[in-house]
Amino acid sequence: MKSKNHPLLGIHSLIMMVFIYVPIAFIIAYSFNSSRLAADWSGFTFDWYISLFGNRHVMEALSNSLIIAVVSTLVSTVLGTISALAIRKLGKKMKVGFGGLLYLPIIIPDIIMGLSLLVLFNQFQMPLGKITIIIAHITFSMSYVHVVITTRLIGMGNQLEEAASDLGAGAWQTFRYVTLPQIFPGIIAGALIAFTLSLDDFMVSFFVSGPSSTTLPIYIYGQVKRGISPEINALCTILILVSVTLIFLAQFMLNRGKGQKKQSVLPF
């Protein structure tokens, strides 16, 4: 017999969806409001989006965010992939130990990570700026990439690699023609997640940023302290759309990787 879900579960899910998405819907809707007053709808307009691109401070914050996100994504993707491949070869106890350490940046609160990194940079007398933000973003983004790649490696198994070795392939050939194609969707998904996390991060960036390294989330925070304007709503809407798009792309890549058939003919 098929078990039926209790009606209250559906009601609970609906309430949660309303609680999460209605505020976001208000931000998006009022980004098109021609009035500067958040409580007064006076017409539909794209003026606030147009004015964003003429705002020097917004463009500077956007430039900083993109530079930091691109660099930290590239480095964290490489390091996360290497760590996943390396830990895979370890024994069970060492794998659990090192894996647990790499999970820590995901588990600990952002405020603790930001404060600890700030103390570390102060100990080394590093001036706060783009470099410190990039290092901080690599620190937590690498863990997310590691988790995605590790999950992909577990799903892949060892059969194809063992078959490649039996057919005389070396370690590099096995990695290039067997392992890399199988985990590549996971690498892309991990990179997209890392880019999204870097682009959206506020708490860690707030602790380790300098006066000339304001990112978009920090800029939004500074502007909101003066009052919520339609320009801020427009900027938040753009960030929401970019983040959602990247997350959907990451999920698509993961699903595509799971759906791919394993190669039966090895190209060597």
UniProtKB/TrEMBL annotation:
InterPro entries according to UniProt: Bact_Polyamine_Transport, MetI-like, MetI-like_sf
Localisation: Cell membrane
Entry annotated with the keyword Transmembrane helix: yes
GO cellular component annotations of the record: plasma membrane
Domain of life: Bacteria
Predominant subcellular localization, coarse grouping: membrane
Transmembrane segments: 12-32, 66-87, 99-121, 133-154, 175-196, 202-222, 234-254
Domain ABC transmembrane type-1: 62-250
Gene Ontology BP term (one): transmembrane transport
Alphabetized UniProt keyword annotations: Cell membrane, Membrane, Transmembrane, Transmembrane helix, Transport
Membrane topology field: Multi-pass membrane protein
Keyword Ligase: no
Entry similarity comment: Belongs to the binding-protein-dependent transport system permease family. CysTW subfamily.
UniProt-recorded name of the protein: ABC transporter permease
